[in-house]
Amino acid sequence: MSFNKIIDKYLSKQNLSNWEIVQKDENEKFSNVIVIPAICEFENIRKLIESLLSNNLQNINKTLALFIINNKVNDSNEIKNDNLNSIKYIEKLLNSDTHKLKFGYIDCFLDGKELPEKDAGAGLARKIGMDLALNLFDFSNKEKKVLISLDSDCLVSENYIKEDFDFLNKKNIPVVFINPRFRNINFNSIVVDYSNGAYQIITKAINDGVNNLACFCNGLSNSNENEKFNGFINAIVDKKKSINLEWINYGDFSYEKIFNILVEFKKLNKLPEIIFITNEEYTIWIISILEKLNLKIGEDIDLIY
Question: What is the total count of domains within the chain?
């Protein structure tokens, strides 16, 4: 089955008919898509776009910054008016000449297009954006396709696009960003937020027959990491699974320390089925270490970050 057919088959199973991507040229394809969910973030969106445009865009592959402007039916008029201002601002950029950085948006806020009350939030908006973004990739060329997500209230450095995309293009790293709230997902590399997301995805893994779970967490100075760690532990306890203390690594680890731990796992043939990781630094290190150990993500071991 061709990759295009795999994508089409996946998208056909998603409930996306209510939303579409708005861009200058609906047939234009890209190598990189930056997905940015936003609700009531007009001022922050302007600042984020300014920081994106401060990047050196001459030597990057074609890139689209895709904003998912969203709210619920019952959100206040203040939120909806702010979202409308965001749409108007982004529409002005659609026709601007920004070399290889283009802009687009998905309307998840006007009447009939709002996010469902039950699942509304950044997670669902991000999933809608990432799913629809798959239609934007030009699979006819051999360039690596990069799908990455940003928060609308952040700023990026002047080297952000080049450095991050160069890193992903030079390294053969399979990274798939998946919203943990949704079911029927295949494990590869998964991004989760906070305690509830961690709890749900670990519960799903156990329900699917996974028994051997390891964890790397540096929660000593980060409350978000502690929340994720608590979600991980609570899911194991609630599913009445035993906790292998050898696989629970909590603390401030160096690259060398994590390398030695994983080497020992492999040497003793005690590799877990899934490694749960609570921060980006450890994730990048572990991906690098697994590559050095000739262990394939998605085949020999799965990652949840």
Answer: 2
The phi, psi pair for 250, rounded to 5°, reads: -120, 115
Instruction: Indicate if 122 and 222 belong to the same structural domain.
Output: no
Residues 201 and 139 occupy one common structural domain: no
CA–CA separation, 273 and 132 (whole Å): 30
Are residues 128 and 15 located together in one domain of the fold? Answer: yes
**Residue 231 is part of a domain; what is its CATH number?**
3.40.50.2300
Alpha carbon distances (Å) from 164 to 36, 64, 168, 171, 270: 16, 15, 6, 11, 33
Per-residue pLDDT tens over the stretch 247-291: 888 888 899 999 999 999 898 888 888 899 888 788 888 888 998
The answer to whether the CB of 35 falls within 8 A of the CB of 147 is yes
Q: Which domain covers residue 106, as residue numbers?
A: 3-170
SS3 36: strand
Asked if 277 and 286 count as a contact pair (C-beta separation under 8 A), the reply is yes
| Cα torsion 154, 155, 161, 163: sign | negative
Asked whether residue 88 is assigned to any structural domain, the reply reads: yes
Specify the pLDDT at position 2: 60
16 φ, ψ (degrees, to nearest 5): -120, 5
